[in-house]
Design a protein that fits this description.
This protein has a four-stranded parallel sheet, covered by helices on one side. Strands 3-4 form a two-stranded antiparallel sheet. The relative contact order is 0.24. It has a single domain, classed as Ribosomal protein L13 (Ribosomal Protein L13p, Chain: A, Alpha-Beta Complex). It is built from five helices and six strands, in the order βαβαββαααββ. Helix content is 30%, strand content 18%. By secondary structure, the protein is of the alpha/beta class.
Length: 142
């Protein structure tokens, strides 16, 4: 019996919606990363981009457990000497909740061309409305 290996032109991509309201940020991100990578499919092939499109709604209503809201920080560097910028997650969730979700999902994807291609199929929305109804996305249940 031979092992099935998917070819890039044979991959069928579906659309999924994940509602992040009241759910931990990391759990939603892990669920999205699995769908973006295609690991939920029986035809998963590690070296082929088999993932689906994922829409995450209500990013502003995602929660961080424990003391992460005040202790966790997002660090970025401007490129200039000594210009390391830090932002606490309570500020980040109040101003840019989609950025917090994007960082969480990006950290769970591989750091190569497959991960970068998967991140392009992620759509994030602060509220409950999204503009992808024409694709008929399926709601993901926990």
């Amino acid at each position: 019996m031979s092992t099935f290996l998917a070819k890039p032109n044979e991959v069928e991509r579906n659309w999924y919606v994940i509602d992040a309201a009241g759910k931990p940020l990391g759990r939603v991100a892990a669920q999205a990363a699995t769908l973006l990578r295609g690991k939920n499919k029986a035809t998963f092939t590690p070296n082929v981009d088999c993932g689906d499109h994922v829409i995450i709604i209500n990013c502003k209503d995602a929660v961080l457990t424990g003391n992460k809201l005040t202790q966790k920080k997002w660090q970025r560097h401007t490129g200039y000497i000594g210009h390391l910028k830090e932002t606490r997650y309570d500020t980040l969730m109040a101003t840019k909740p989609t950025k917090a979700m994007e960082l969480a999902v990006k950290g769970m994807l591989p750091k190569n061309t497959l991960g970068r291609a998967a991140l392009l199929r992620l759509r994030l929305f602060e509220g409950a409305e999204h503009n992808h109804q024409a694709q008929k996305p399926a709601m993901v249940e926990d």
